[in-house]
């Protein structure tokens, strides 16, 4: 079957044009067609060169994701690459759009590479828990050097054409029709008497300190194996003959295919795409979204406004005083100047956003034409209700009214208006123009097209939008509250906050819970504990030491002291000795004899609490699918991507053993550790959380 490749002849140059829309993924038919048409070109009398080019948007965007998890059919990609490289004809890859993963490996198996100025290349396999497996780790160092190869492979980043050419990955960058440019380049090489130049025959580059490079990459990846393994594969390109290096790469690739990390990252890859794809919104059109309002110009409001401006929306930001409005404009200007410095926007775009697309106002009437308004005011029900009463009075019919609450009851907020069907929760994470998670909180009366509009906004802003139901804390903060409580219990019982933080960063979290609390501000948790105190169950164990810290004015990073002490100009903090004094005093007061916890025991309890609460969240329908929980924790709470999310981790760890541990912990505290009914049901039926994802996807 060769219909995915169009063969044409132009003098003594044969063109193999890949036609597998939309992005020429390297499916079986493409691999088979390339191999067959290489045979055809070599048998075509008078052909001296071959140009491989892609139709449509890209050269080759990588593997065909529909083949993931299936047994690959011949020709396998490594064999195809070797076959292209071994051709007696001179082979040119003419690249445009993206050439990623196997696409770049095909290009590296050509003898020469030319690309459009706008094209990008990369080897992103580490994002799937793998390394390149078709010669990428062996050929790339020979053309771009060891340091560049390690950077490209271990980060998985996209490299622009100019940078790729500067490092030797591309031979030429030229604007024009990719096929015409490729043919002209091949003809020029032939006219100049250029020889075939198989990358495998180029000299191996000079060695580096491999152990140091491996250790640095492992540390940077917070325990992810595939980037560090890529260093060893590149090492093989230097230390072994080419054929042996290919075998070493293939073995490492195969070994990584069998790891839990690879399973976790494949789960994350597909779940990220599935999470915003809700059956209930099939065929539901979102409302118009061109102009939005934001109420409150603090860190959160300014971040939301910035994200909206960067996505091309017009924004009216409302503050209560002229001074507050100017301060909000300053925060947004600071955010946009950061985007300008990083090259995300041009000076013209920056100026247009700040001067034309942004309006800062102090009167609610300024919001009368907004398609959607998001309030980001103080987290207090009465304050929110006042705002929504005003919005109900001034906003046009059909405008979506959104609250950026973290915990509060969206149904109660909606009920204060005469249009509860237009009200929705849009819970952003700070800083809102950087953090990718958006919880779309659907209240009891929220109209379907309003929900669809929430997801449409998430897509416009480049967010990972997750549907959540109404409860205290929705998906993320409800689960966070539970696993943080498990950590607090361990502190009362004998662990230190610093040991817990270290155990969890070693597990792969970006930060430990107490470092995170310092970053967010300890006053947030203090306010919440005071809010919940009147309705607290007497069986609940609550430590008082964090309140003592707050009462002393220590709120974390913003005051220079919390669980850690922060010195100006120093990265991170050092443990605050006063914290252990407060903890030890409370243990003595409560008659608790401290016990030792190993790092493994800390991780197990912390994760068991997370999984148990997550199973309750799914069981109650607050999250519709386990993958919704996984994506929430991945994109909003620093959960290590290579573990897939807490419920994927639970599946890989084993639900029966996890339930046994929870039941054992419940012997000490049956209130906190009450096992989730859904978890018990899955274990009884011999099923997994992933089974629920599959059922929801049908």
Distance between the termini: 31 Å
What percentage of the residues does DSSP assign to strands (E)? Answer: 5-15%
Shape: globular
Output the CATH topology of the largest domain. 2-enoyl-CoA Hydratase, Chain A, domain 1
- Percentage of helical residues? 40-55%
> Mind telling me the C-alpha Rg?
28 Å
The number of helical segments is 29
CATH architecture level-2 label of the largest domain: Alpha-Beta Complex
Summarize this, please?
This protein has 698 residues and is an alpha/beta fold. The protein is 49% helix and 11% strand.
What does this structure look like?
The protein is an alpha/beta fold. It has four domains: 254 residues, 2-enoyl-CoA Hydratase, Chain A, domain 1 (Alpha-Beta Complex); 180 residues, Rossmann fold (3-Layer(aba) Sandwich), CATH 3.40.50.720; 122 residues, N-(1-d-carboxylethyl)-l-norvaline Dehydrogenase, domain 2, CATH 1.10.1040.50; 86 residues, Orthogonal Bundle (N-(1-d-carboxylethyl)-l-norvaline Dehydrogenase, domain 2), CATH 1.10.1040. Helix content is 49%, strand content 11%. The protein has 29 helices and 19 strands. The strands form four sheets. The chain has an eight-stranded mixed beta sheet. Helix 1 links the parallel strand 2 and strand 3. Helix 8 runs antiparallel to helix 9. The chain is globular, with a radius of gyration of 28 Å. The two termini are 31 Å apart. The mean pLDDT is 95.
List the helices and strands and how they pair.
Elements: E1 5-10, E2 13-18, H1 28-43, E3 49-54, H2 77-85, E4 90-95, E5 98-100, H3 102-109, E6 112-115, E7 120-122, H4 136-144, H5 146-155, E8 159-160, H6 161-166, E9 172-173, H7 178-191, H8 210-220, H9 225-239, H10 242-257, H11 260-274, E10 291-295, H12 299-310, E11 314-318, H13 322-341, H14 347-357, E12 358-361, E13 372-375, H15 381-394, E14 400-403, H16 410-415, E15 423-428, E16 437-441, H17 448-460, E17 464-468, H18 476-493, H19 497-507, H20 513-520, H21 522-532, H22 545-551, E18 564-565, E19 574-575, H23 577-589, H24 599-619, H25 626-636, H26 646-653, H27 655-666, H28 677-685, H29 689-696
Parallel strand pairs: 2-3, 3-4, 4-6, 5-7, 6-9, 10-11, 10-13, 11-12, 13-14, 14-15, 16-17
Antiparallel strand pairs: 1-2, 7-8, 15-16, 18-19
Helix pairs in contact: 1-2, 2-3, 4-5, 4-9, 5-9, 8-9, 9-10, 11-25, 12-13, 18-24, 19-24, 22-23, 24-27
């Amino acid at each position: 079957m060769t219909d995915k490749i169009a063969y044409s002849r132009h003098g003594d140059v044969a063109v193999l044009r890949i036609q597998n829309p939309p992005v020429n993924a390297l499916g079986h038919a493409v691999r088979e067609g390339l191999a067959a048409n290489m045979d055809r070109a070599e048998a075509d009398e008078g052909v001296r060169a071959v140009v491989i080019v892609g139709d449509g948007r890209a050269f080759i965007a990588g593997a065909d994701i529909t083949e993931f998890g299936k047994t690959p059919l011949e020709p396998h990609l490594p064999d195809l690459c070797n076959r292209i490289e071994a051709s007696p004809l001179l082979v040119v890859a003419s690249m445009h759009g993206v050439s990623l993963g196997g696409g770049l490996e095909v290009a590296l198996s050509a003898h020469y590479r030319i690309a459009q100025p706008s094209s990008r290349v990369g080897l992103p396999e580490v994002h799937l828990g793998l390394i390149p497996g078709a010669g990428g780790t062996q050929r790339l160092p020979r053309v771009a050097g060891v340091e560049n190869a390690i950077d490209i492979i271990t980060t998985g980043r996209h490299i622009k054409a100019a940078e790729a050419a500067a490092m030797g990955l591309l031979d030429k960058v030229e604007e024009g029709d990719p096929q015409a440019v490729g043919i002209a380049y091949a003809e020029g090489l032939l006219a100049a008497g250029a020889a075939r130049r198989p990358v495998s025959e180029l000299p191996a580059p000079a060695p580096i300190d491999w152990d140091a490079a491996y250790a640095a990459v492992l540390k940077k990846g917070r325990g992810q194996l595939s980037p560090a393994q890529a260093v060893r594969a590149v090492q093989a390109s230097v230390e072994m003959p080419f054929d042996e290096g290919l075998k070493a790469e293939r073995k490492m690739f195969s070994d990584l295919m069998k790891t839990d990390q690879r399973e976790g990252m494949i789960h994350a890859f597909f779940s990220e795409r599935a999470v915003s794809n809700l059956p209930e919104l099939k065929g539901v059109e979102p409302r118009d979204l061109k102009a939005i309002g934001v109420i409150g110009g603090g860190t959160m409001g300014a971040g939301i406004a910035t994200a909206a401006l960067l996505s091309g929306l017009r924004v009216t930001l409302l503050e209560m005083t002229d001074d507050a409005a100017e301060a909000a404009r300053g925060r947004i200007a600071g955010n946009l100047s950061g985007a300008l410095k990083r090259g995300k926007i041009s000076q013209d775009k920056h100026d247009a956003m700040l001067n034309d697309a942004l309006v800062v106002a102090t009167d609610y009437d300024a919001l009368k034409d907004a398609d959607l308004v998001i309030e980001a005011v103080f987290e207090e029900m009465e304050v929110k209700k006042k705002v929504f009463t005003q919005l109900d009075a001034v906003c046009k019919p059909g405008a979506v009214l959104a609250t950026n609450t973290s915990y509060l009851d969206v149904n109660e907020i909606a009920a204060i208006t005469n249009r509860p069907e237009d009200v929705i929760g849009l819970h952003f994470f700070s800083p809102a123009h950087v953090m990718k998670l958006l919880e779309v909180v659907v209240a009891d009366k929220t109209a379907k097209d309003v929900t669809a509009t929430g997801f449409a906004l998430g897509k416009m802003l480049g967010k990972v939008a997750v549907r959540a139901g109404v409860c205290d804390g929705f998906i993320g903060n409800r689960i966070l509250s539970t696993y943080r409580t498990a950590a607090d219990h361990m502190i009362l019982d004998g662990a230190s906050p610093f040991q817990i933080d270290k155990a969890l960063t070693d597990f792969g979290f970006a930060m430990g819970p107490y470092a995170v609390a310092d970053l967010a501000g300890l006053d947030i948790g203090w306010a919440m504990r005071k809010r919940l105190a009147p309705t607290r169950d007497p069986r609940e164990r609550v430590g008082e030491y964090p309140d003592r810290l707050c009462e002393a004015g220590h709120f974390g990073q913003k005051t220079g002291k919390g669980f850690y002490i922060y010195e100006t100009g120093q990265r991170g903090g050092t443990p605050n000795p006063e914290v252990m004094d407060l903890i030890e005093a409370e243990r003595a007061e409560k008659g608790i004899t401290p016990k030792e916890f190993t790092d493994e025991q800390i991780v197990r309890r912390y994760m068991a609490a997370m999984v148990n609460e997550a199973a309750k969240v799914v069981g109650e329908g607050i999250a519709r699918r386990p993958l919704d929980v996984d994506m929430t924790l991945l994109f909003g709470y620093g959960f290590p991507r290579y573990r897939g999310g807490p419920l994927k981790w639970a599946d890989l760890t084993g639900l029966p053993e996890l339930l046994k541990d929870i039941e054992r912990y419940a012997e000490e505290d049956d209130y906190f550790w009450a096992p989730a009914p859904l978890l018990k049901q899955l274990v009884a039926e011999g099923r997994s959380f992933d089974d629920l994802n599959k059922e929801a996807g049908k």
